[in-house]
Amino acid sequence: MKAMLAAFAMIFVIAVAADFGLEEADFSSQQVQSSPSVRLD
Amino acid sequence: MIRAILIALALAVASMQNALAQEVPSDAPRAETGGAQTLDDILRRQQGLEVDPTFRSEATGDPDSAAPPTAPLGTLGGQSDPELWRALRYGTANVSSQVRSPAATLLVQDEGMWWLQFREGPLRTWGGYFLLGVLGLLALFYLIRGRIRIDHGKSGVKITRFRAFERFSHWLLAGSFILLGVTGLISLFGRVGMIPWMGKEGYATLAIGSKWIHNNVSWAFMLALIFVFVLWVWHNLPDRTDLTWFAKGGGIFTKGHPPAKKFNAGQKLIFWSVIVLGASISVSGLSLLFPFDMPMFASTFHHINALGLPELVGREPLPEALTPHAEMQYAQLWHSIIAFVLMGIVFAHIYIGTLGMEGAYDAMGSGEVDLNWAKEHHSLWVEEEQAKQGAAPPTATPAE
């Protein structure tokens, strides 16, 4: 049971880390697809 | 006054007809409509027959020889709106964009309609029926066979079946797969299955949440897939005991159980299904996660064509020049179809690991299974484990 709960917690941690990490690594759609002359903010 | 207007209109129509008659020779195809589609084209389309689209795709204007905007019937840029839209539709328009996506200059993807219709039609329909069919078969199997009991009852002695990291990896894979499956089904069926009863506003929130989960939990699934492969691949290599297991149908409908090592042949099938289909879902998922960066299908189709596989089944060669959109569409369909197949297999796995077999859940619950269960389902593995421990009885923990 502990292994199962730890795994479920790890899923949450990985998901949050992936979301944050990809955003920080400039993998957002905005960063990937817009050019300097396209202002989205 | 009215007579004068009517005469002017008649003259205008007559002059336009003259102009059209001059442009289209009387013996040219579709001469009767001035080159536009005919009743025959419409009827053929309604009957689902092929219609040569070149009369449209090539009618995109000729700015070099077009009348100037100041002349009668002259158009700005030498192309009329319909001609421009045809050029966009058939991919011959010269489009430039500051957006860096390779798909940015493809404004109309005409050939994408089959994808939309397939996704909204056969994919949903047959995918849904497949999952319901698997659930129905499992319910039928339960009614016929009932729960598979431990023939000799529980011994009260436990043996360690899976260590903590094995169970952690299994649940990492299982938990992420369930989340991905549910959110994938929400994305595919939401428009027809959820909006009618929860409204567009409610579904929009759910869809955004589902997308976040689907995109980000995928990494846990891929990581767990690697863990599980490394942990269990050695135990899942085929051997002779599998033939015996299959010959006896796994002992499901007969008395006695065929001998098996740590994993029986049925479990090996599940393992390799999860690894192969899971890897395929992961790769197509990565292609979708990073749009247009990981095109896979043009090269895959090239290899399939080179092997002559389409001809073997009497089909045309697969398209090898795909637009960026088409790459994504093939990836989406492949991702969904393989996911449906894997969901069906996992339904069976969940059934046999919980409701279908007494004592099976303990293997992944506590990691300790009853010795009698282990002897019945994995007799060779128990012998190996006991040999490792010097023939001493396994963990002599009384059952509670």
Automatic annotation (TrEMBL), chain A:
Name of the protein in its database record: Uncharacterized protein
Automatic annotation (TrEMBL), chain B:
Pfam families reported for this sequence: Ni_hydr_CYTB (PF01292)
Region annotation Disordered: where it falls in the sequence: 54-77
Protein location: Cell membrane
Matches recorded under InterPro entries: Cyt_b561_bac/Ni-Hgenase, Di-haem_cyt_TM, FDH_cytochrome_b556_subunit, Formate_DH_gsu
GO BP, one annotated term: anaerobic respiration
GO cellular component, one term: formate dehydrogenase complex
Record keywords: Cell membrane, Electron transport, Heme, Iron, Membrane, Metal-binding, Signal, Transmembrane, Transmembrane helix, Transport
Entry GO MF terms: electron transfer activity; formate dehydrogenase (NAD+) activity; formate dehydrogenase (quinone) activity; metal ion binding
Database matches in SUPFAM superfamilies: Transmembrane di-heme cytochromes
UniProt xrefs under NCBIfam families: formate-DH-gamm
Name of the protein described by the UniProt record: Formate dehydrogenase gamma subunit
Organism, scientific name: Silicimonas algicola
